[in-house]
Amino acid sequence: MKNHQFAFVPTELPQIVAELTTTRFLDASNEQLPADELLKDLIKRTLVNYRSDASKEIALADLMVDDHQDARAFFKEHQSVERTQFYNLALQLLHFQTNEDFKLSDPITTWQQFQLPIYDGAKTTFEAEDVLRAWYLLLNTHTKFGQTLLDDLAANGYFAQFSDLKQPLIFNGKTQAVFNTDHLIREVVYVESDLDTDHDGKRDLLMAHVIRPAETEAGLKVSVLFTASPYDQGTNDIAGAQLTHNVDHPIAHKEPNQFSYSDVESHYQPGNLPAKRTGNGKTATHAEEHFQNGWGYTLNNYFLARGFAVVYSAGVGTKDSDGLRTTGDPAETLSATAIIEWLAGKRTAFTNRNGDVKITAWWSNHNVAMTGRSYLGTLQTAAATTGVAGLKTCISEAAISSWYDYYRENGLVVAPGGFQGEDADVLAEETFSREQRAGDYHRIKAKWDQQLAAITSHQDRRSGNYNQFWDARNYLKAVANIKADMVLVHGLNDWNVKPRNVYNLYQALKSVPVTTKLFLHQGQHIYINNFQSLDFTDMMNLWLSNKLLGIDNHANDLIPPVTIQDNVNPGTWQLPADWGTSHSKTIQLNDAKALQQPFDQATPAFLDQLSHEQLSQYTKHESSGQYDEWFNDLVNNPNSPIESTRLIFKTKPLDHPITIDGKVKVDLTMASDHNVGLVSAMLIDYGDAKRLNVSPSVLAPNAINAGYQWTKDSLKEFTLQANPSPSKMISIGHLNMQNRQNSYRVNELEPNQYYDLSFELQPTFYTLPAGRQLVLVIYATDLAMTVRGTMGVTYHLNTTQSSFTIPLLHNPD
Amino acid sequence: MKNHQFAFVPTELPQIVAELTTTRFLDASNEQLPADELLKDLIKRTLVNYRSDASKEIALADLMVDDHQDARAFFKEHQSVERTQFYNLALQLLHFQTNEDFKLSDPITTWQQFQLPIYDGAKTTFEAEDVLRAWYLLLNTHTKFGQTLLDDLAANGYFAQFSDLKQPLIFNGKTQAVFNTDHLIREVVYVESDLDTDHDGKRDLLMAHVIRPAETEAGLKVSVLFTASPYDQGTNDIAGAQLTHNVDHPIAHKEPNQFSYSDVESHYQPGNLPAKRTGNGKTATHAEEHFQNGWGYTLNNYFLARGFAVVYSAGVGTKDSDGLRTTGDPAETLSATAIIEWLAGKRTAFTNRNGDVKITAWWSNHNVAMTGRSYLGTLQTAAATTGVAGLKTCISEAAISSWYDYYRENGLVVAPGGFQGEDADVLAEETFSREQRAGDYHRIKAKWDQQLAAITSHQDRRSGNYNQFWDARNYLKAVANIKADMVLVHGLNDWNVKPRNVYNLYQALKSVPVTTKLFLHQGQHIYINNFQSLDFTDMMNLWLSNKLLGIDNHANDLIPPVTIQDNVNPGTWQLPADWGTSHSKTIQLNDAKALQQPFDQATPAFLDQLSHEQLSQYTKHESSGQYDEWFNDLVNNPNSPIESTRLIFKTKPLDHPITIDGKVKVDLTMASDHNVGLVSAMLIDYGDAKRLNVSPSVLAPNAINAGYQWTKDSLKEFTLQANPSPSKMISIGHLNMQNRQNSYRVNELEPNQYYDLSFELQPTFYTLPAGRQLVLVIYATDLAMTVRGTMGVTYHLNTTQSSFTIPLLHNPD
């Protein structure tokens, strides 16, 4: 175990005393005790479930102070408290086990190996003040199961025993789990938007699920976590699968154009809106409709136990809302901001879809944060770019910043990894959950069929070009409007929402006067708030306590600007100053010094062709968005049908480690023997090694508690593969040879003529130890992402005029 | 979807009216309404979360009555209710979706295809009485997510709206989810056993976790589900792994003996017990120690919402209890029965480990059922064989009936699938969770080391023989004592606790005057209470309502005696009258008519030898307790290192389907060229086919609700493989050639001398469609289960005097 805690706020003694008093560890009965008696008293206060003194004493006998005496025996006689004794007890309170995790003879070494924060301001013998200081630090230290000891105690009922806690309790700058989640109020409202996407002459009402602490009924005003999730109301999986596009066809030749950006620029036209509903003059304080628990984002649940409200809304075209799905256009953005405006007191909602009785968010303090991953993260970015008032911050995970970068690339249809054949229309159909209410669907079906046909047409799979449809779905255009502080989280192995999405947003935010924090992990399309090695949840608590509750806790300073998980050493996080602003090194593709096998021909060729049987064999089994057998043949197998379909450039083994920091650029001079051309480039880490597993491993099931008798999550961490693997994809990129200038300008492609092609691979942050080799594969059809005509096009590469350029964290010279 | 519901109790109209009244679907306000108004009123009562009449009317508009009118419009004018209209609404209430699941033009066909119970007592037009009868049936019908509609409504708060329900509510013979699980009381007691396994001069106190409804405080006496689970207090995984035995060594030659059973029979000697604790004269009604939620067996949680108490206890040697682990001996049995006796008012417990204040189970009605799987199921069988008063029934899943059948077979060490090298000592160490309390461990360590060494010695891995150690752990000896009605659940592909365990218990129970119900599923070591296709949970409700609450609900008649999941058709359950009493057919191993490739030699040979590299390659990746590459080479690959290590006998393709019902018997005449010999026989279903997947697939995550705002489970079902597989293991068996008579009598083995060997494979129930082939593989070292010396022994088989005999469900002639 390696622990990284960034959310600890250094605290002076008077404040320590004040906070230990607020949290009821300290009071008149124990504040004057000598060190040993004080420590005994503090430990007994943690024994929440032992409700008699006799049972607490028995529990003390279960703890060892050193390798020969238990705590009951130790505390029986007045003794000095040695530092090692304190940390032996501390390790046990943190659920570490003697023998398996540490030795009673030397707790300090283990403590330091685990990177737990240590109190070192004392001599080896603790005075009472040392006990207080060390105890305070201990309450803020992570247990074996990745939560602070205080959170662990809260989960065991520490705060539940004090029934008079009815408002947020701040400890070390973070809000604590003192709210009774059994009493949460769950109600439904219908927010009136400035949209009429289903053109029924009435503004679209958007259903929202509100979960708020019971204490709001007694007047507490609370901050809100809002998750805009089109999936929450159900998905039409069968209909979505039926709509999924066939990709086993050649790319089309495109007529050249002379487009500039203005030709493809989109300007949102809200059109003439129907009048607002006037209601019947009544305003209710409580909803007519309620709902049951049923959502699982543990970060939201964590904050529900800490006195925040949580709101979910699925947006236009979802079950119980009006309107039609659009897959990411401004109407969906306004679906999200409408909810925020209602939460900020600036918009009307009703108690049912008749729209007669109004209801306000009277319990809201008007400070809203957004949370969620993937589409849910995307809508955060979308909402933030409107500059909507009330939205203080986003915790945007695995978010799309431009839908073109999700479904397209450089003039090509390029699928999200694992979702071959999906497109904007498929996603629209999947999330059009109005379909699940038979009556509602009956009334809207004709309009929906029209809308879906329009999306299918405008997304234009034939050309793969950037156009007005995609420009309307490019949030990067409006980053300058962002007023919310942004937390960006993304997986460096996320081939679904690829890393370019977060990279472009991160870079664009540099010129916007908000605070941005970037977290890059080694996972795919996952959450990271259940990792053992990083106090991500604590940091988000620090962050939201600052942004929403206004606590002066130095969140902006304590949370590192850039936190990146190491891909070589498990449970390790790096803190570079920035991402992607680095040195670089260029390798020519005919460089005999750099490459292991420079080609004997100056212009080697490959033939993009597979039989139907080969294609079907390779695409039979998909795992994690990749076809393993194909990848293995592509990179590791010289005797396979793939051999002749690609060119491989392999560097000599590295004589020192390197860290690739940002976007690898590929400059190629290539010819196609047809009037179409599709180029893929894959960069690979080559060499037998135990790398991180693709997904984090469960270290302890259901070990993380969001609160007392509340939802649980499993503790996870990336671990090393059990057996060495020969290689791993680092990054990838694709280009239509007719889009040599950009994604909307189409150039002619003359067969057998050489063209200069230049494109960037997905940005990364990747360390290769010494001895590894870098492999660049140049090929055409990418079975997992591009259309796969595999139609017999021959490509030639001029290696004398081709190279790739690697951005490096450290100066290569 | 195919629905099998056995727990429905046929009910007459007066009782229907009474039960609909009790559950508040019927009262003075609606009992006189005509059919359409009654139906509208009933549907509106299901709309629990719509709390105003306006919102309920809006919700009605979301339901379609037929393909052109919604329910709001339909009910506006007085209309007759057609049968198809009722079932259109019914399908929607059961969460089936128009278009994806059914068509509004023909709901009846879908209803019948899904095998949902239909009300067919009416003409096509429903009168009010028909509505009542059909509604009652509908409330008992499973939704798309595998629960009755009434359970689904309960999960949505149907009963929670009636706050005055404070005692069990019976509907259709089953107890309903009317209890508020937010208010469960969780407390800890220490039961004094009649044991002193740690020889400290004090009877072992056994900690138990009690969860009981708050209503017990007001005088409600409740039945108890008790789960004896040695794992609940944590496991010592690292220490267990360290103790795991090396299996890469040859089997040992054994000195012949003349043992009869009396030589290995064990007689439990409780020894002289210390006096009982007298206490301090005080008796408490409430505990001193409490605990948090944290266990996950969903069947127990389901009953917590229905007014049962649940008790967990881990037994001797576990954390917070006294004593030492023994792996299955009578002390562990008495650990379990001690808790039952306390629950039945016949034994003393204390509020803490000092043993001064007594506490009774004053809230118990003294009726106890046991639940749980694996070790947890095993301890049910163990407890039942004592005939302990209070134990009314067991729901024993994947249980061991004799520990020799778990760790040994016919004179050989044979591992549970997936746990090579595990043995009784390893399991004892893993479950000795006193080790996790540093103080407690410090005081007990020396005694534990002694105990563990004794187990290691007595289990006798060297011989693999049945002895007194194993006889003390054979519950089959005392089946005649069983007084509890028994539900036995086992996986036909459970290679961890192998099917012989349940088979032997099932057969032995036939002569015991209790009711036994047998469920055999196609899974491995799993629970089945989350399957879509079978109402297992409902049946258990019917069962426990009968056995514990005394409800006269025909449980004994309605639950089939034997329910077996089909291995060919997903979601299908067969109801044979019995298991393993069947016809049979013998195939000689030189039968040229039956076998595809009879051997040209009369005495073919195989050499049990693999290099270290081959062994290490084959055992590198284990999945589901099997080494796939080895299995594939064993059965399907004539060009592998395995080729010469086994003999294969393959039948001609079957000209009609057969169902193997029970134990395949193998009769072999064999010689070994050493003075040791190890024979394995594997029976295989051969032929390309899409078989059931190894594990059930998740159909809908977290879709099953144990109650209102309570724990959830995922809906699962076995689905077919995406791609055909060439073969599948049906069953397996192993024999030490020195144990030709039985598992304790050792015979001499002369090298190169032929001996008659006869042994049974694990019992099964397996259908082979026409066209498939049966394969019998005769080999020696079983990489997944036996020790693996692979030491170069050559075996000869006399095919003219060898055969296998297949038990068949239907007469083969």
From TrEMBL, chains A, B:
A single Gene Ontology biological process assigned to it is: proteolysis
Q: Name one GO molecular function term.
A: serine-type peptidase activity
Its top-level enzyme class, in one word, is: hydrolase
Enzyme active site = S374 (charge relay system), D494 (charge relay system), H525 (charge relay system)
Identify the residues that the record assigns to the X-Prolyl dipeptidyl aminopeptidase PepX N-terminal domain, covering every copy: 1-158
Q: Output the HAMAP family linked to this UniProt entry.
A: Aminopeptidase_S15 (MF_00698)
Q: What job does the chain carry out?
A: Removes N-terminal dipeptides sequentially from polypeptides having unsubstituted N-termini provided that the penultimate residue is proline.
Name of the protein: Xaa-Pro dipeptidyl-peptidase
Tell me which species this is from.
Nicoliella spurrieriana
Name the gene for this chain.
pepX
